[in-house]
Amino acid sequence: MNFREWTGIAGFAATAVVALPAVATADDDLPSRRLTDHVVIISIDGLRPDAIDKFRMRTLQRLMREGSYTLNAQTILPSKTLPSHTSMLTGVDADVHGITWNSDETDAHGHVDVPTVFGIAKSAGYETAAFFSKTKFHHLETPETLDYVKSPHGGFFTGRYTWRRTVGYVEDYLESDAKAPNLMFVHIGEPDYAGHLYGWMSMVYHQAVLEADRAVAEIIDEANDRFGGGNYTLIVTADHGGHGRDHGSSDPRDTTIPWIVWGQGVQAGVQLPAIRTMDTAATALWILGVTTPTDWIGRAVTGPFSGALMATTE
């Protein structure tokens, strides 16, 4: 039974997960203090935390029950997709990474000139992969930092992937003979698309949120098949919220985001402290046993892992 069925999306009763064998890795080449061999980060663009319960995102609700979370994490200003994701994946604020625009300007500005979580993980010996559904993420595709990357090219209409297309690429990659990624990032754009066209919390936004929830379930199914159930750690978050048909302001509806951690090493029910989006990169590296740069303001969220950390350092 897959994760979609397990969460009740397909109308089945809940059941237990059967752990599958872990994917073999070259342990001697990786940091010994890691808590897991695989971290998956999923960012749902434009997801307001209050939409999770209001629209019954069953996959995320289950992750929240079985993992640890906060519905009061904060993104940066400007609370827009590219600046926010850059902070999410570099551990620093916009005044350091310098990306304050919100479109693909790689021809003019090139790639982000601060280290990304991908580059740091790769330098530590890890395999990295990213799946972006908007062209503006090209700024984060720094050469020699991603072993695999998939992202769109083109204008407003051709330069976007639907969640089905993005998840399809994830499935193809995880089912291929490629080396299993130790750090994988997936971006899902539907709530943001719907919010701009029809308004945040509208009926169309409602449907987009449920599609994003389905996307998370399908990614989990693929991760279970590739890594083995219980053999990876998942972080689900967002870059910003929104109100009316826009975002980017200091309004709490724009700046407040969900932050959920679930899977290997995670204790259920831990009340998470104040979290900022920069903490996502720091947490992913900490889970993988990698030291973060000293100038990062992002801090690892370690509370949910205290039991696992003790076990790995004894």
Structural category: alpha/beta
Mean pLDDT: 90
- The overall number of domains is 1
Distance between the termini: 36 Å
User: Any idea of the CATH class?
Assistant: Alpha Beta
H/E series, N to C? HEHHEHHHHEEHEHHEHEHH
What name goes with the CATH superfamily? Alkaline Phosphatase, subunit A
Which stretches are poorly predicted, pLDDT < 50 over at least 5 residues?
Answer: 9-26, 308-314
Helix content: 25-40%
Shape: globular
Report on this model:
With 314 residues, this protein is an alpha/beta fold. It has a single domain (28-313), classed as Alkaline Phosphatase, subunit A, CATH 3.40.720. The protein is 35% helix and 12% strand. It contains 13 helices and seven strands. The chain has helices at residues 3-6, 50-54, 58-66, 81-90, 94-97, 106-109, 117-123, 163-174, 190-198, 203-227, 252-255, 279-287, 306-313, and strands at residues 39-44, 68-74, 128-131, 148-150, 183-188, 233-237, 256-263. A seven-stranded mixed sheet has the order 2-7-6-1-5-3-4, sandwiched between helices. Helix 4 (81-90) packs parallel to helix 12 (279-287), helix 8 (163-174) runs parallel beside helix 10 (203-227) and helix 9 (190-198) runs antiparallel to helix 10 (203-227). The radius of gyration is 18 Å and the shape is globular. The chain starts with a helix and ends with a helix. Residues 9-26 and 308-314 have low confidence and may be disordered.
